[in-house]
Amino acid sequence: xxxxxxxxxGVVQPGGSLxxxxxxxxxxxxxxxxxxxxxxxxxxxxxxxxxRSDGSNKYYAGSVEGRFTISRDISKxxxxxxxxxxxxxxxxxxxxxxxxxxxxSGYTPIFDYWGQGTLVTVSS
Amino acid sequence: xxxxxxxxxxxxxxxxxxxxxxxGSSSNIGSNTVNWYQQFPGTAxxxxxxxxxxxxxxxxxxxxxxxxxxxxxxxxxxxxxxxEADYYCAAWDDSLNVVVFGGGTKLTVL
Lengths: 124, 110
What we know:
The structure holds 2 protein chains of 2 kinds.
Chain A: E1 3-7, E2 10-12, E3 18-25, E4 34-39, E5 45-51, E6 58-60, E7 68-73, E8 78-83, E9 92-99, E10 111-114, E11 118-122
Parallel strand pairs in A: 2-11
Antiparallel strand pairs in A: 1-3, 3-8, 4-5, 4-9, 5-6, 7-8, 9-10, 9-11
Chain B: E1 9-12, E2 18-23, E3 34-39, E4 46-49, E5 63-68, E6 71-76, E7 85-93, E8 98-101, E9 105-109
């Protein structure tokens, strides 16, 4: 069965960096696009970033563009989110999610599987 | 302020039918499909409805989705205590070029 396991969360000071990982199993990782979605404490869901199956194209929410970098290692079946210049408003649980296919734009992506999430707290 | 508007709360008694609305615009719901997610406290969201009205395998047929114009709805019939959760709608937005979520609706079973 599909499993997504995030790691790497923690407490970091404003301006600091953190790298999240998401280990994937139970499906052909190289065939599907992958997302990061976050949820601030007590708030709703916010899409963060998407990467296509082969890593050729990456897309970001405006709130993280230029500060976050999504990547993937097909040989390790692992998705990453490098987060730099962190701000207090980046505090959230970060979920990795599998897309039902590999498309982006002009279509509502289906987040068909989700990891358990990892908490990132940005505070001095 | 979410692009898609959902009521913050909804409630019903066991066995009742409840609906949760999701209001958008011509650039999102009006021109793209809607998905719904269910989230229990402290857990990850789960896909509940996709492509407006399709249920993934394993989702009870008590859950149904519909879309009309720039609004979508999630209906839960035969309400059960275990349906108490947060529900989110999502759709692609052609103007923003991103997928947007509703603010979420907390469903309480009285």
